[in-house]
Amino acid sequence: MDFSNESRVLHRCSAQIGNLLLRSLWHLVHFIISICNFTLDIANVLESYLISSGLLGRYKSLHVAKLRYLAIVIESEGAYQTSKIIELLQWLEAVGVKHVCLYDNDGRSSGFSLSLGSLGILKKSKDFILENLDGAILFQDAHENNVLLDQQHMTLEFVSFSDGKEAVAKAANVLFMKYSKSGVTDQNQKEKIFTESQMSEALKTVGSGGPELDLLLVYGPARCHLGFPAWRIKYTEIVHMGLLKSMNYGSLIKAIYKFTMVRQNYGKCSFDLHYKL
């Protein structure tokens, strides 16, 4: 009996010591990771400050010509911070970015029951934003009037979640009507397969083609860019910038600098995706 009691006591003590060691190890790992993250945050803040102050020479000369089309994605809550958005656009204008596409995911969480007429928060504020940017014009107006994109002033494009849904619906209808008029040549063919190039042509037909974007900066949660017209970001580099309220000039310049310093190989090989109707 004494031996059994001693064994149980020894087993209990061993289990308690093991649990204590595991818990201590977990806290130690958590502490090390926290220290590393804190150090990285401090380093990023310091680097952003040095970039903003102009003390890092390599960030002074940006090859902005490589950045033809830039997209800014802002979460729905951040899209109400109009003053922040205007400040961000003024920074971009100062460094020479000519075309900016603005998108917010307002309405995406409502699912596909959302009315296609939902404009999005940024679209509703576009007049105010344009008034506060000297010489800025809508990209649609510049395109219709054959104004070159390398002009002196910035062109802005406002895109909402409903734009993508409506464009896909219209493009699908164009393809369906075209297929219906052409007639069925094979009675055994139960489905029609369309290539990516045909889908792109249909999107252009309904006025929703738009230029493919080079760089997309996300101000918000990681998934808030979902719902952006997918055919325009096939080869787009996506960079997450944190929340809009925490934006800073140094981080913006760093993101653009990194993009311009990397050789872009997209579009070197061509292939077609296939869609079924």
From TrEMBL:
Pathway participation: Protein modification; protein glycosylation
Sorted UniProt keywords: Endoplasmic reticulum, Magnesium, Membrane, Transferase, Transmembrane, Transmembrane helix
One GO CC annotation: endoplasmic reticulum membrane
Cofactor(s), names only, from the UniProt record: Mg(2+)
UniProt cross-references to InterPro entries, sorted A to Z: Nus1/NgBR, UPP_synth-like_sf
Family: Belongs to the UPP synthase family.
Native organism: Gossypium anomalum
The keyword Heme appears for this protein: no
Record flagged with keyword ATP-binding: no
Protein name: ditrans,polycis-polyprenyl diphosphate synthase [(2E,6E)-farnesyldiphosphate specific]
EC number: 2.5.1.87
Catalysed reaction equations from the record: n isopentenyl diphosphate + (2E,6E)-farnesyl diphosphate = a di-trans,poly-cis-polyprenyl diphosphate + n diphosphate
Compartments where found: Endoplasmic reticulum membrane
GO terms for MF: ditrans,polycis-polyprenyl diphosphate synthase [(2E,6E)-farnesyl diphosphate specific] activity
